[in-house]
Amino acid sequence: MASPAGTSPADNPTPSRASIAPRTLRTDRWWLQPLLTTLGLATFVVYATVRSFMRTDYWAAEHHYLTPFYSPCLSDSCVAGSSHFGTPIGELPAFIPLAFLSLPFLLGFRLTCYYYRKAYYRSIWMAPPACAVGEPHERYTGETRLPLILQNVHRYFFYVALVITLINTYDAILAFGGENGFGIGLGNVILLLNVVLLWCYTLSCHSCRHVTGGRLKHFSRNPVRYRIWTQVSKLNTRHMEFAWLTLGTLVLTDLYVWLVSSGAIADLRFIN
Amino acid sequence: MAYQAKLRVWRGDATSGELQDFEVEANEGEVVLDLIHRLQATQTPDLAVRWNCKAGKCGSCSAEVNGRPKLLCMTRMSTFDEDEVITVTPMRTFPVIRDLVTDVSYNYEKAREIPSFTPPEGLEPGEYRMQQVDVERSQEFRKCIECFLCQDTCHVIRDHEENKESFAGPRFLMRVAELEMHPLDDADRVEAVQSAHGLGFCNITKCCTEVCPEGIHITDNALIPMKERVADRRYDPIVWLGNKIFKRNGA
Ligand code: SF4
Ligand code: SF4
Ligand code: FES
Q1: Atom 8 in ligand 1: which residue has the minimum CA distance?
Q2: Which of B101, B122, B154 is a domain's end point?
């Protein structure tokens, strides 16, 4: 029975939502973005997994290019020259990636990153697949309990990621000195570009924004931290962009080192 | 320039309802609300719609256009093709009263659950000089016009009615952030934002930000900073260990 106009909801015994059956009335291609996101993430995961276990062509000996997927290389299983920090660890069985010390943290950093969370919650877990599109789950508790409550450890991964980015930077600097001394090739440009973007991604992290200044109540009493916060905030608005750009440059860097070190292509040299 | 636009409007109440098709004249420069008004004036005098300012500032005319949460007065007809069917429905997340009008009292209940601004005790007017940089963050959140489109979109309650009890929704989590970032607010809000207002339900998928007609960066500037504060307090093992060892309470 339809209630007459002017009936207040209190008079209505069961206040309920408008009966609209379809899970969404959106007419645009709302499914495109989750689809592209899934494809993009899957491509990276497959590539990175394959490469991390390959154990070949990760060090271009002539030009001292080391791919970030094998840095730092700390075991006796590493090819000569690729261990920039010595080899304190003995031989590693084949099922352990040579960069076993950095990869889990890099994975953890990105898995708990506020942007990637949005990306995979939407596209893989479909909670929600797109805005105002019904999600397929019966119940939803978000990040209130295990395991998702663990997302709160993001800041620790951020600290470790800072150290790893420093290591990658060191690798990129060392790559300017190859077997024949100082030189610059296309590989150097790629390594450098990758490192610059890795810094942009790492420093634009929301946890970084919080610890550098976001947590303060009185900006005016902490002018230096306020300025740092302002800069980090500027980078932070582009965090998603850097998240995708660095996936691209990581693959590009690794692929280039792979091709050069396997001899498939020769490094394009600009100087020496 | 005038043409007959195809409108599909949800009509009904809490007991039943359906989408009904209409043809309504549309003129250059008009918005969806103009057509709803013309429909009311020419064909359906009893059509219920809530509105006030027609300038995107009162937050009354919230509804969904082609499935997307929108202010009817700010949705231009020029964004649709002339032969496109434009579906107008009430906000899905709230109980419907009639036609396009919903009962948004959930939001007022949630607003009341947040303790109001708490200045330091004994602070006299004029004793504190506010610096612009100190209030900037809270000011962004004050742009809110309380249209509740963000609340309507948020999947936590849109898709799960049962979560309404424990989740305040983006608009009110942002209200907590506004007070928390205020230099003169003394109340401890970090514990409550997680336990009482349900911040943990938010999975930062940013739909609130996407629909906000005021362009407030709700997720980046309010929700994530609050999540980080909660992490400071609750999930920072170093702080936790310190509290254990030194038997400190709070932080
Ligand atoms: S970001 Fe959080 S509060 Fe905003 S719509 Fe998504 S789940 Fe809801
Ligand atoms: S935050 Fe934006 S979307 Fe939410 S009620 Fe305020 S103005 Fe509306
Ligand atoms: S009528 Fe006021 S916001 Fe639309």
Answers
A1: B154
A2: B101
Residues in chain B closer than 8 A to A143 (CB atoms):
200-203
pLDDT digits (tens, 9 = 90+) for A164-191: 999 999 999 999 999 999 999 999 999 9
User: Interface pTM (ipTM) of the complex?
Assistant: 0.91
Minimal CA–CA distance to B234: which of A59, A223, A119, A151? A151
Residue A9 maps to a domain: no
Let me know if residue B214 belongs to a domain. yes
Which residue of chain B is at minimal alpha-carbon distance from A236?
B220
Q: Which atom of ligand 3 is nearest to the CA of B71?
A: 4
Indicate the number of domains in chain B: 2
**pTM listed for this prediction:** 0.93
The DSSP output letter for B21 is E
Q: Pick the residue of A11, A14, A19 with the most B CBs within 10 A to test the interface with B by mutation.
A: A19
Distance, C-alpha B93 to centroid of its chain: 11
State the smallest CA–CA distance between residue B82 and chain A in angstroms. Answer: 15
The tens digit of pLDDT for each residue in B139-187 reads 999 999 999 999 999 999 999 999 999 999 999 999 999 999 999 999 9
Whether the pLDDT of residue A57 is over 80: the answer is: yes
Give the distance, in angstroms, between the CA of residue A121 and the centroid of all CA atoms in the same chain: 15
Q: What pLDDT is stored for residue B239 in this prediction?
A: 66
Average pLDDT over residues B205-210: 98
Which residues in chain A are closer than 8 Å to B210, comparing Cβ atoms? Answer: 131
Q: How far is CA A119 from the centre of its chain?
A: 11
| Element spanning B10, H or E | strand B3-12
